[in-house]
Amino acid sequence: MKHNRGAAMLLALSALAIMTISLSATLAWFHVTFKYTTLNEARQVCSHIAEAGLDKALAELQAGNRTYTGETNTSLGDGSFSVAVAPADRAGWLAILSTGTLPRGATSVTVRLREEVQVDPAGTIRAIEWREVRP
């Protein structure tokens, strides 16, 4: 009997330590998952904003606006897009670079999309190729 003194306290402290470590690991996992999910959501929204910039440029070109070279910081929802239109490397093609930006606290999320379009003299768009441009 004398040799068992304090065994219950040692067992309780050990169980408490294991629960504390498990809780800390679970909270850290939730934090990382939440951060990744919100960043992924922001990139998705930002991608839609950049696509809206591409659509705006296409609409201008299809309307016959041959002098349209783009625009800067056009507000859309919580973010904005900037578009630049210039001749592409291939003859008869135009390159459209759209950058969608979404403020996120002290920083911002940015997605860049590049689209190349073939426009005939009548203003009809014959072909479209696009991709995301990684920084």
Could you write a compact summary of the structure shown?
The protein is an alpha+beta fold and 135 residues long. The protein has one domain: Pantoate--beta-alanine Ligase, Chain: A,domain 2 (2-Layer Sandwich). It has one helix at residues 7-62, and strands at residues 70-76, 79-87, 93-104, 107-119, 125-133.
Kindly describe this structure.
Helix content is 41%, strand content 37%. The model has no long low-confidence stretch (mean pLDDT 88). The chain is an alpha+beta fold and 135 residues long. The termini are far apart. The protein has a single domain (2-133), classed as Pantoate--beta-alanine Ligase, Chain: A,domain 2, CATH 3.30.1300. Strands 1-2-3-4-5 form a 5-stranded antiparallel beta sheet. It has one helix spanning 7-62, and strands at residues 70-76, 79-87, 93-104, 107-119, 125-133.
Question: How does the SSE layout of this entry go?
Answer:
Blueprint: H1 7-62, E1 70-76, E2 79-87, E3 93-104, E4 107-119, E5 125-133
Antiparallel strand pairs: 1-2, 2-3, 3-4, 4-5
CATH topology category name: Pantoate--beta-alanine Ligase, Chain: A,domain 2
Helical coverage, percent range: 40-55%
Number of DSSP strand runs: 5
Oligomeric state of the chains present here:
single chain
| Largest sheet strand order | 1-2-3-4-5
pLDDT < 50 runs, ≥5 residues: none
The second-level CATH architecture is 2-Layer Sandwich
